[in-house]
C-alpha cells in the first residue's frame, strides 16, 4: 500500500489517506480480505497523529470500503461490483463537477468546455 | 473514554503572574501538545501536576487518583523529562542512574541499556560533560525504562537539532504503539512534534485559550490573504487581528469567509497561536 501525504493540499490529512486507500481499492490494487496496517502502526509510519489516522479508517468504514474486526484489525471489504461501478461513476461526476466550476469561474461557455474535453479524449 | 489525567479549575498565584481556572484532560492512548508563548504557564502547569509546586485552587487527578494523596503511586507510572538540569553534574550517568533506579518498582534494566546503546551514550561519562542533546537522550532513557504509562516532557526539543528532533518523534511514535500509553509535552516552538499531537492545549498568560483535537482546529480556521483593497469593513469584522501591510493583508478567520479572489489557506498551529495571541492583546 502506498500513501503519499501533502502538507500543501487543501485536503485534510485524514481525507488524503482515505482517498488514497479508496483509490487503491477501486483500482484493484487492494482486494477484498486484504488486511490494512493497524491505526497505530500507520500513524507511526506516516508520522502523524493517531486521531488523524483513526478518522481516515472511520470514514472508510462508513463508506463500506473497509471492515474493522475488534481485536483483529481492519480489512478491505468485499465490494459489490454494481456498487463499485456506481462509486466510480460518482468519482467521475465529482471531478467533472469541479472542472465545470472552474470553467464557470473563468467564464468559458459550454462549447469551449466540450471542445477541451474532446481534445483531451482524443489525445 | 478513560482520561489519563483530569485538571479542573487549577489556579496558582505568583507575584507577577497568575494561572487561572485551567480545566483540561487527556484521554488515554493519545498525545497532547501544551503550547503557548514564553511565560504563559506551561512549565508551572506541569510542575503543579507533579506536585513539585503547591496549587492554590482546583483539582488534579492522574490515572483517576488525586495527585497529592497518591503522589508516590502516580510517580511510579509517569516518566518525566524536565527542561532544566535535574541531575548531579559531578556524577557519571551510571552512578546517577544508580541513585534513581531504586525508586522504581518496575525498573527494566535491559530496556534502559537498550536505550543507552541506541542513543550512543557511554554510561561512564560524567553528566557535566554531556551536550544538550545527550542530556535529553539520557533523560529520555530514564523516563522510558520503568514502565511509565504517561510521559511528561517540558520543552523536550528546545535547543535540539532537527536530526535529533526527528529521532525523538520516531521514539514517541514507538511509545504510542501501546494503546495504554499517553504523552503530554510542552513547547513554545510549535514544530514537527505538532504533527503527531492528537490534542492541542493552548495557554496564554496563565489562561486557557483552548484545549481540543488538533484536526478540529484545521476545520475551524483558515488563513485569509488578500490585497489591501479586498479588506472591506465587513471582512474586517470577521477576522481576528489583521496583519495589514502595504501590499496585502493576512489574517486568521473562520471557514465561512467568502470573498472574490481571497486566498484561503490551511493555517499551521503556529499561525493559529500567533493570531489568537495577538487577538488577546499582545503586541498592540
Topology, element by element:
The complex is a heterodimer of chains A (123) and B (284).
Chain A: H1 13-26, E1 35-36, H2 39-46, H3 50-62, E2 66-69, E3 73-76, H4 81-106, H5 110-122
Antiparallel strand pairs in A: 1-3, 2-3
Helix pairs in contact in A: 1-3, 2-3
Chain B: E1 3-13, E2 18-27, E3 31-35, H1 42-49, E4 57-62, E5 65-66, H2 71-76, E6 78-81, H3 93-100, H4 109-118, H5 132-143, E7 150-154, H6 162-175, E8 182-187, E9 199-204, E10 207-213, H7 214-218, E11 221-226, H8 233-238, E12 243-244, E13 249-254, E14 263-265, H9 269-279
Question: What would you say this structure looks like, in words?
Answer:
In chain A, strand 2 and strand 3 (73-76) form a beta hairpin. In chain A, 60% of the residues lie in helices and 8% in strands. The model of chain A has no long low-confidence stretch (mean pLDDT 89). In chain A, helix 1 (13-26) crosses helix 3 (50-62) and helix 2 (39-46) crosses helix 3 (50-62). A three-stranded antiparallel β-sheet of chain A has the order 1-3-2. In chain A, 22% of the residues are buried. Chain A has five helices and three strands. The two termini of chain A are 30 Å apart. Chain A folds into two domains: 13-76, Arc Repressor Mutant, subunit A; 81-122. With 284 residues, chain B is of the alpha/beta class. Chain B has two domains: 3-214, P-loop containing nucleotide triphosphate hydrolases (Rossmann fold, 3-Layer(aba) Sandwich), CATH 3.40.50; 220-279, no CATH class. Helix content of chain B is 28%, strand content 28%. In chain B, the strands form three sheets. Chain B has a six-stranded mixed β-sheet, with helices on both faces. In chain B, strands 2-1-4-5 form a four-stranded antiparallel β-sheet, with helices on one face. In chain B, a hairpin with a 4-residue loop joins strand 1 (3-13) and strand 2. In chain B, helix 4 (109-118) runs antiparallel to helix 5 (132-143). Chain B is globular and about 65 Å long. The chains are: A mainly alpha (123), B alpha/beta (284). The interface between A and B is medium-sized, with 15 and 21 residues.
Amino acid at each position: 500500500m502506498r500513501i503519499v501525504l501533502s502538507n500543501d493540499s487543501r485536503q485534510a490529512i485524514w481525507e488524503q489517506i482515505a482517498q488514497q486507500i479508496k483509490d487503491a481499492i477501486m483500482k484493484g490494487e487492494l482486494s477484498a480480505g486484504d488486511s490494512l496496517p493497524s491505526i497505530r502502526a500507520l500513524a507511526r509510519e506516516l508520522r502523524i497523529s493517531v486521531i488523524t489516522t483513526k478518522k481516515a479508517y472511520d470514514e472508510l468504514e462508513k463508506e463500506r470500503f473497509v471492515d474493522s474486526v475488534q481485536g483483529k484489525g481492519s480489512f478491505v471489504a468485499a465490494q459489490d461490483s454494481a456498487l463499485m461501478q456506481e462509486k466510480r461513476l460518482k468519482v467521475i461526476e465529482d471531478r467533472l463537477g469541479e472542472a465545470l466550476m472552474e470553467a464557470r469561474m473563468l467564464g468559458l461557455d459550454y462549447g469551449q468546455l466540450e471542445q477541451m474535453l474532446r481534445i483531451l479524449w482524443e489525445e | 473514554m478513560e482520561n489519563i489525567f483530569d485538571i479542573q479549575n487549577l489556579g496558582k498565584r505568583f507575584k507577577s503572574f497568575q494561572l487561572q481556572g485551567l480545566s483540561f484532560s487527556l484521554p488515554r492512548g493519545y498525545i497532547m501538545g501544551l503550547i503557548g508563548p514564553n511565560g504563559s504557564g506551561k512549565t508551572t502547569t506541569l510542575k503543579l501536576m507533579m506536585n513539585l509546586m503547591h496549587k492554590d485552587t482546583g483539582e488534579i487527578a492522574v490515572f483517576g487518583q488525586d495527585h497529592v494523596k497518591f503522589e508516590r503511586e502516580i510517580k511510579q507510572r509517569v516518566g518525566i523529562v524536565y527542561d532544566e538540569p535535574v541531575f548531579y553534574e559531578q556524577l557519571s550517568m551510571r552512578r546517577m542512574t544508580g541513585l534513581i533506579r531504586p525508586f522504581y518498582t518496575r525498573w527494566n534494566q535491559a530496556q534502559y541499556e537498550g536505550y543507552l546503546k541506541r542513543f550512543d551514550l557511554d554510561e561512564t561519562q560524567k553528566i557535566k560533560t554531556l551536550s544538550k542533546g545527550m542530556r535529553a537522550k539520557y533523560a529520555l532513557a530514564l523516563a522510558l525504562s520503568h514502565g511509565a504509562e504517561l510521559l511528561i516532557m517540558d520543552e523536550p526539543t528546545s535547543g535540539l537539532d532537527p536530526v535529533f528532533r526527528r529521532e525523538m518523534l520516531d521514539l514517541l511514535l514507538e511509545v504510542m504503539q501501546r494503546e495504554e500509553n499517553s504523552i503530554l509535552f510542552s513547547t513554545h516552538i510549535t514544530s514537527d512534534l505538532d504533527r503527531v499531537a492528537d490534542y492541542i492545549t493552548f495557554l496564554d498568560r496563565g489562561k486557557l485559550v483552548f484545549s481540543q483535537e488538533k484536526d478540529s482546529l484545521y476545520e475551524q480556521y483558515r488563513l485569509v490573504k488578500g490585497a489591501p483593497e479586498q479588506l472591506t469593513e465587513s471582512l474586517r469584522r470577521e477576522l481576528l487581528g489583521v496583519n495589514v501591510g502595504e501590499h496585502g493583508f493576512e489574517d486568521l478567520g473562520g471557514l465561512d469567509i467568502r470573498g472574490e479572489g481571497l486566498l484561503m489557506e490551511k493555517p499551521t498551529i503556529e499561525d493559529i497561536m500567533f493570531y489568537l495571541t495577538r487577538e488577546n492583546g499582545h503586541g498592540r
